[in-house]
């Protein structure tokens, strides 16, 4: 969407926002064992876009869940259209037009796109589901978010995370919507999809829909919103027009200190290869791929969603079975036998997965157990877990990674998304593997904590570890990497040394595999839509 169109929509939204508040919050607080929100008072009017930001654990998601009926406030109250409002469930809030697209997706992977979209309102004819109408309604709804090439009957579990996010957004645009809460909606979207989302936001705003837009991407917030609210440690520290704040000022409000603009990787020695991948491939997903990862090196993997980045890491880690190719560890002349993650870990390979919720953590279990899970023998005596030793390990990593938590006994599922990601990283740091594969290591992590992670990655490389990092944030890769390999349509098409790359050359390589006679194809049929890496 053009900046002019967005500006016009925002102007219309400001006019609508002068009306009586749609939703008012007064003195909202939430306490679990300790307070996570304290005395938050804020309102939003029809047609207004409120940017809500803050560090991980600042209370953003808790506040939005209270608004949308998923969590009850401990103190304070809310009013909708000037009347008391206290939804007892998400369904009740949705009935009143209050909808939320959560950071953690709320889809059923075994059901199709169509069934997920219209789960509670499947069209019927003569007592049977009208599949033709359901498919047509689904195509119309998916076209509204720019996805026209997906089969409505595709199981959601077969889609990439970016596509799943767009399905979730499409689901929440069905029916009446008066207030839409978007929690990190662009974290896994392509540039094209982001523009489509912004177009939808402008349309909703022009129709008088209020929007609470939660994100750590401050430049994005400044583009889409007029007003910003900043939470820090559960308290509202800013509620003002966004135009008066620079990115640096917003960061300081969020974290209580200025964020660093550059990263000093320090002196490192790039040594001999730790990992040699030779012609590894799997069907049409990953073409035969070869590369070396050297000791002390940070090698980034850029590309688009569906380009094979995650799939390449999974092949190396043994999570998926390769059709061909070999992996060599260090200077070994015999290929490693890796047919499962257990084999990979034994060979000295760790992997921080993209999906922390379903693949990275035991959510009901403690931070301590999740941290030591890959090396339980080190905190056990004669086969019995030493809880004191486990607690000491957990406390150490909580401090090192600035994990916002009560203590190491707290369940991982009670943490914010970014802090959950830090627990996953802590596990593999404790395992101390020489080869570390990172798939979106800072997804959902706020700007202040990102630099903590970057410094940690730099320290690991100085220790001589080899780091292979997939990221959808091109600026992140350009900041921390020694080399950047680019995948396109399942193929490794180019590799750039530091000092030889630019954003334009990397993006050109990322799109190169999708060129056809009519120009760039948004994605082949068996991949996810393009994601600027």
Summarize the structure.
This protein is α/β, with parallel strands linked by helices and 533 residues long.
Write the layout of secondary structure elements.
Blueprint: H1 3-17, E1 23-31, E2 35-44, E3 49-54, H2 60-67, E4 75-80, E5 83-84, H3 90-95, E6 98-101, H4 113-117, E7 124-125, E8 128-129, H5 131-143, H6 161-172, E9 179-183, H7 191-206, E10 210-214, H8 218-224, E11 227-232, E12 235-241, H9 247-255, E13 273-282, E14 286-294, E15 298-302, H10 309-317, E16 324-329, H11 341-346, E17 349-352, H12 356-360, H13 367-372, E18 380-381, E19 384-385, H14 387-400, H15 417-431, E20 435-439, H16 447-462, E21 466-470, H17 474-480, E22 483-488, E23 491-497, H18 503-511, E24 515-516, E25 519-520
Parallel strand pairs: 3-10, 3-11, 6-9, 9-10, 15-21, 15-22, 17-20, 20-21
Antiparallel strand pairs: 1-2, 1-4, 4-5, 7-8, 11-12, 13-14, 13-16, 18-19, 22-23, 24-25
Helix pairs in contact: 1-7
Would you give an account of this structure?
- This protein is an alpha/beta fold.
- The protein folds into 3 domains: 1-97 and 179-186 and 210-257, P-loop containing nucleotide triphosphate hydrolases (Rossmann fold, 3-Layer(aba) Sandwich); 272-348 and 433-515, P-loop containing nucleotide triphosphate hydrolases (Rossmann fold, 3-Layer(aba) Sandwich); 358-432, no CATH class.
- The protein contains 18 helices and 25 strands.
- The strands form 7 sheets. The chain has a 6-stranded mixed β-sheet, sandwiched between helices.
- Helix 16 links the parallel strand 20 and strand 21.
- The longest helix has 16 residues, at 191-206.
- The protein is globular, with a radius of gyration of 24 Å.
């Amino acid at each position: 969407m053009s900046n002019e169109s967005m500006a016009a929509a925002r102007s219309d939204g400001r006019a609508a926002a002068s009306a009586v508040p749609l939703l008012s919050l007064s003195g909202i607080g939430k306490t679990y064992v300790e307070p996570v929100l304290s005395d938050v008072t804020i309102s939003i009017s029809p047609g207004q876009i409120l940017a809500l930001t803050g560090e991980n654990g600042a209370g953003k998601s808790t506040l939005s869940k209270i608004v949308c009926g998923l969590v009850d406030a401990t103190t304070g109250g809310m009013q909708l259209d000037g009347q008391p409002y206290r939804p007892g469930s998400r369904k009740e809030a949705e009935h009143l037009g209050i909808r939320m697209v959560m950071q953690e997706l709320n889809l059923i992977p075994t059901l199709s796109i169509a069934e997920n979209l219209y789960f509670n309102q499947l069209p019927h004819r003569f007592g049977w589901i009208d599949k033709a109408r359901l498919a047509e309604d689904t195509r119309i709804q998916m076209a509204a978010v720019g996805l026209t090439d997906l089969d409505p009957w595709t199981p959601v579990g077969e889609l990439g995370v970016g596509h799943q996010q767009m399905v979730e957004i499409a689901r929440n645009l069905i029916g009446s919507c008066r207030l839409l809460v978007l929690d990190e909606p662009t974290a896994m979207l392509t540039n094209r999809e982001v523009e489509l989302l912004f177009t939808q936001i402008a349309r909703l705003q022009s129709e008088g829909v209020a929007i609470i837009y939660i994100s750590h991407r401050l430049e994005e917030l400044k583009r889409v919103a007029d007003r910003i609210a900043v939470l820090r440690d559960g308290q509202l520290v800013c509620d003002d027009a966004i135009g008066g704040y620079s990115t640096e000022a917003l960061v300081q409000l969020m974290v209580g200190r200025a964020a660093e603009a550059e990263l000093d990787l320090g002196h490192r020695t790039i040594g001999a290869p730790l990992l040699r991948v030779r012609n590894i491939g799997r069907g049409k997903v990953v073409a035969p791929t070869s590369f070396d990862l050297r000791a002390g090196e940070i090698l980034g993997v850029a590309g688009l969603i569906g380009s094979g980045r995650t799939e390449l890491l999974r092949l190396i880690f043994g999570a998926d079975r390769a059709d061909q190719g070999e992996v060599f560890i260090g200077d070994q002349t015999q290929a490693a036998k890796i047919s499962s993650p257990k084999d990979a870990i034994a060979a000295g390979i760790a992997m921080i997965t993209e999906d922390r919720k379903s693949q990275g953590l035991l959510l009901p279990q403690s931070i301590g157990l999740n941290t030591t899970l890959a090396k339980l023998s080190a905190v056990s005596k004669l086969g019995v877990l030493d809880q004191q030793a486990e607690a000491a390990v957990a406390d150490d990593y909580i401090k090192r990674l600035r994990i916002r938590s009560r203590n190491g006994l707290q369940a991982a599922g009670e943490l914010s998304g970014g802090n959950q990601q830090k627990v996953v990283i802590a596990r593999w740091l404790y395992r101390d593997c020489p080869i570390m594969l990172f798939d979106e290591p800072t997804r959902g992590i706020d700007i202040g904590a990102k630099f903590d992670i970057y410094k940690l990655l730099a320290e690991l490389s100085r220790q001589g570890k080899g780091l292979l990092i997939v990221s959808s944030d091109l600026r992140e890769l350009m900041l921390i990497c020694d080399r950047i390999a680019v995948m396109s349509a399942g193929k490794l098409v180019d590799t750039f040394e530091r000092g030889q790359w630019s954003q334009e050359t990397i993006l050109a390589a990322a799109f190169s595999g999708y060129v056809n006679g009519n120009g760039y194809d948004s994605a082949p049929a068996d991949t996810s839509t393009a994601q600027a890496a």
